[in-house]
Every structure is written in structure tokens, then in C-alpha cells.
Design brief:
Blueprint lengths: L1 H13 L3 H18 L2 H17 L3 H18 L2 H17 L3 H18 L2 H17 L3 H18 L2 H17 L3 H18 L2 H17 L3 H18 L2 H17 L3 H18 L3 H18 L1 H8 L5 H16 L6
Amino acid sequence: MARSYGQLGLIAQERGDHASAEDLYHRALIIFDELGDQSGAAAYYGQLGLIAQERGDYTGAEGLYRRCLAISEELDDRAEIASSYHNLGVIAQERGDYTSAEDLHRQSLAIEEELGNRAGAATSYDQLGWIAQLRGDYAGAEDRYRQALAIFDELGDQSRTASSYRQLGDIAYLRGDYTSAEGLYRRCLAISEELDDRAGIASSYHNLGVIAQERGDYAAAEDCCREALALFEDLGDRARTATSYYQFGVLYTEQGRAADAVPYTLASLFIRLEIGAPAPEVHSNVHLLGRQLKILGRRRFRKILGKDASPDTVADLLRLLDSATTDGGGKR
């Protein structure tokens, strides 16, 4: 019965119904505790930790992962210990504690290699690559991503192979090597299309649009960004929809079409505020709107805003832009 509750919880979690998943996992835990089944309990503490993490409750997630780790260490369940280290590493990473995150992922990697779990080792390499990228160590990131890619390719995991190509494309882009970045993004796109992975296809089109924009090929950039936007909207991915709207704001501003850019930048800002996006993303919208205000002039800018926002919202937004310019926030 406990395992049935747990499986139903996994299905609910896959559907994004976190409330039902959490309830089902708690039912499973009650039974496992009654039976004294520590191994079963540990697994569902881990799942509850994932739900807390997806909600942004990193403190709650860490507590649940540590309960899972404590039980797994008591049982000497090496696979579950490695998984707990991985999850705790992700939490540290999200908090910006890259030193702790790297240490935890290295501990997870050591156990996965000891167990011969190639997929687990590849995941650890991937996470270590991301930490290196966040630190600006592009050479280290590329090395780790290539180690992950080799294993995913060897295992025939096409989805993760595509993801590795995308990450390598990001490194090439950050280095200014747009030719290599485009080639890697196209490899990611080809695999995503083969798998009918619509999210992967959308991300690939977005990245190819950014590359075209950097090269000044605005027609190709707009085509790619429209493909991405349509897919993100169809998937209901609001965060990536906001990113696509923002990209159109940048694209049109760079073409001298600031009046066309404002509605997209504004739509991106509204979504990001609504979903509680990270502050740097909101700041990027405010900065871009500030640029557009400077180009268009206050009167024309206000008139364009009035088509998509109430007078009170327009007034609030103008005050925000004035404040950002005054305190230096517009330079972000």
C-alpha cells in the first residue's frame, strides 16, 4: 500500500500536481514508519525534498534531503547517499555557495564511480560543469560537459546528449565563438526534433536566434525567436515565454524599432513579476525599458505604455524607471 501511494505520488509530481504528490508521499511515509521500513522512508523524504526545492523552499528541501542522507548512511545505502549528496549540492548551488556545491557533487561523483553508475557519474560531471561555468571557468566547464557528453552518448541517452551539446554551445557563445556555438545548437536541435522534444526544440530556436542577432542577421533572428516563442506559449512555459518576449524587445531596440520593442519588453516584465522571477531578470527588463524611454522620449513612451497598461500602472512604471536611473539601477 505504501509503495502504491508512492507511485501515485510520482505520477502526480510528473503532472505538476505537487499538492497531491506531497499528500501521497506523506501517506506512504506514515506506513513505512509503522513498518520500520527505513529504506522506503528515505526515498520519499528525497521526493518531498524535490517538491520543496521546486517551490523554492530551499531550507525545507535541505532538511528533507538531510533526513534522507542520515537514514541512507545508517543503512549504508551508497546509491541513496550519492543521490542525497547530489540534491544537497543543487541546493547549495541555488544559494550561490559554489564551494559547498562543488564539494557535494564531487562526493556524489566518487560514489557513483565506485558503484559503476555511469549515468549518475555523467550527471555529476554535468553539475560540476555548470558550477565552473557560473564561476567563469569556461575551460573547466567545457571539460566537464564533454565528459558528461561522452557518457550520455555511450549510454544512448539522446535527451541528455542534446542537453550537453546545448551547454557546450553556451560555452562557445560566452567565448564569442558564434560559429562553433551555432553548430552545437544545431546538433541539439536535430536530436530534439528526432525525439519530438518540443521544449528542447524551442530552446534551440531561441539560442539560434540569439546567435543570428549577434551577427546582425535580424531577419533570421526574428524567424528563430518566433518559432521559440510559439512553442514556449504552447507548452505553457511562462518563464521561457517571458525570456522570448524580452529577446524581441532587445532585437527590435537594436534595429531602431523601439516603439515595437516596448510592448514585448513590458509583457516580459509583467510575466516575470507575476511568477516571481529572479531579481536580475526583472532588472534586465527595467534597464531595457529605460533605454527605450530614452530613445522615444517620455511623451511617446507613455502613449505606447497606455495601450497595454492602466494609467496607474503607467505612472508606477515611470516612477520605477526614474528611480532606477537616479540610483544607478538603469546601468544593470
